[in-house]
Amino acid sequence: MSTWLFDLGNTRLKCAPLRADGRLGAVRALVHDEGEAWLQALPSGAVACIASVASEARRVALLEALLPRFARIHLVATEAALGPLRIAYPAPQRLGVDRFLAMLGQCDGQAVLVVGVGTALTLDLVDAAGRHRGGRIAPSPQLMRQALHARAAQLPERGGAYAEFADDTAAALASGCEGAALALIERSLHAARDLLGGCRRCACTAAVARRCARSCRRMPGCRMRCCRGWRAGTRCGSHKLRRCRCAPPS
Q1: Is position 98 annotated as part of the catalytic site?
Q2: Positive or negative: CA dihedral 175, 124, 223, 220
């Protein structure tokens, strides 16, 4: 019986098969555009598990496309408490399920700052007991570039290499936007240490965030670990997600 995991974000749909050993197969990434091409490339199988932070329209479109392809469909929802994790939000449903799963996957008895980079840059602090101490949300470096380009078309939307002091516009944009993200991560790590008396781990859940390692590794006592967000999310299976549930398309 084949099980597929679906991560529907604001920009892309990522999906991967869950192998018998609990690891992921090859991950597919589909950009959802204004058409329906992304829905035509969906896989089929027995069980589909969906985590979505996208709009209601995108979520419904995905569900409708998956219904004829899978025997069972499960939607994953944020819970106030699951396994060792205890969410700080008074209204847990307001916490994105992507952040919830990323934190759940990193609960291993050590304090950790969980960093996600997608449309937004998210940071969540989890202490050694699994208690979520809260988080931050900011524009991702990519979104910063897009916003600048939208207001000033002469500023390139992409390109340029990070440098501490850049010598051309594209590199300066890359350095400024990525540097802003790095600064927020560094400040959050310092704040985590003050709050908890120490925090040595920073776990990144997106490939883009690997660039943060160069900065954070220079911070005394900090260990940066870049992990695949999918893998972190799939570990929730060991905690028996009680609110995974079959869902109709509306």
Answers
A1: yes
A2: positive
Closest by CA position to 29, among listed 214, 201, 183, 229: 229
Within-domain flag for 172: yes
- Residue 58's identity, in one-letter code, is R
List, for residues 59-110, the tens digit of each pLDDT value.
999 999 999 999 999 999 999 999 999 999 999 999 999 999 999 999 989 9
Contacts (Cβ under 8 Å, ≥6 apart) of 170:
156, 159, 160
Catalytic residue among 7, 33, 98, 124: 98
Domain of 26?
Answer: 3-78+238-246
- Asked if 119 and 208 count as a contact pair (C-beta separation under 8 A), the reply is no
> Which two tokens mark 173?
């944009």
In-domain check, residue 90:
no
Listed in sequence order, the residues at least 6 apart from 11 whose beta carbon sits closer than 8 Å to its beta carbon are: 31, 32, 118, 119
